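Troubleshooting entry. Yesterday's outputs looked truncated, so today I'm pasting the complete records for two proteins to confirm everything comes through intact. If either block looks cut off, that's the bug. Protein one:
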Amino acid sequence: MEKSINYLHLPKVIQNNNRLDVLLALRGFACLMVVIIHCAPPRNALIYQNYDLSWLIFSHGAVAVWIFFCLSGYLMGKAFYTERYSSDVTGVINFWRNRILRILPLYYFAVLILSIFVYPDVLKFENWGYLLRVCTFTYHPYIASQPIAFNDVFWSLSTEVQFYIFVPFIYNLSKSLIFKKKQIIAATILIVLIAFLIKTLSWLSFSHQINQQMGYAFKYWYTPIFNNIDIFLCGFLVNVFIKYHKPSSSGINKILFINKKYIAIILMILLYLLTSHHLYHQELWALPNRPAGWRTITTIFIFQPLTAIITSLFIFAFESDNYHIYTKKEKLSFAAILKNPLRILEVLGNLSYGVYIWHLPILLRIYSIFSSEIPIEAFYNRLVATLILSVILATVTYYLVELPAAKFKKNHSFSN
């Protein structure tokens, strides 16, 4: 006779193999924020008792990208701090190799398809230099004196790839210098201050251009890696904090440990509300299409580090209790979602890379099709159509491009 199994006494590792990947869900939420703002929600569209609530759907696209960057900083650091990769030459090469297999196949496939069917002007001989920048991850939408229409969101992938180059060096530096809580806090403050000084220098040098022309705002403030390094590094340092964090076993600390997840969610919601309200009422004013740049120093100097701090707290709240759990997570499937319905939130996160790449070209093609005398109706139609089409295309490329490329990854590279 088979022995009955007491599931209550199974290790936590086994019982939680179908738990929600909260960071993947956050990634999907950030992707949705980007799609929403690109669909151009209308002003004065949501009115309740003479109060304009339209700002609720004006998700701050810059904040969404900063969330991506912070998550990337954490996950790249985690790859080394959990010893998935060793810090020797072999480990670093395998890290870069896996990053290439994760980013480049879909990226270059998208460049090929978009160059042929959506942005054919980029193939003209006089524009080959611009195409070269797209292919070498040195692209942003306003790099040329006469901007060429291409997929604007590619700039963030360029910044991500540039960060990947430095990750192993950052890890080797941090593991030898930072191993106490006070050092982590001091390093975080120092990073934020240095980034603040760099942004201040950019602001003093190009304040008129940044304020008056969106192209210069992208070129001198929004896209450069050195203006975003604080976001990446804050996420990276969460690994150090978790590794050297020693939770207390007292009752009060256990309660705080549980509540910190709810606090993190509330802070993330407040970040969305604060930045959306500011974007609607201060950044955009009453202009329909925002032809100029960033008008307030709040976005330039405050929202970026604020996003880094809140996202880092969010990561810590949900990762600190299972940081060293190595169990293989149950693959996301319809059966897994039936057992844990919360995992449906992971779907957009899994497809976020493809959705992020494809949604803007799709929106460009369908924008004029979904028109209406009622602006909010046109917005909803464009949003639904863009999401459906980009999810479908992202799903196709996920199975045809991303998964086949992932099979060539080397999962571990420990030192002998």
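Protein two, checking that the full record survives here as well:
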Amino acid sequence: MDAAPGWTQYIPLLIPLVVIQLGLMVWALLDLLKRPTTRGPKWVWIIVIVVVNIIGPLVYFVAGREE
């Protein structure tokens, strides 16, 4: 009888995704805190970046930054 559940075989695939997601989130949050202005309130962007996983930081970098 196998002691490990079936999902453990996917851990090597999930680790890079988690690292990318955390890296994007930290990068986006640091960038957000550095900028004096953004498109929309900063608190909304914080929620989007943290809650929407990989897509949230990408949306911030594309639509949230004023350049």
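Both blocks look complete. Sanity check on protein two: The chain has a mean pLDDT of 87.
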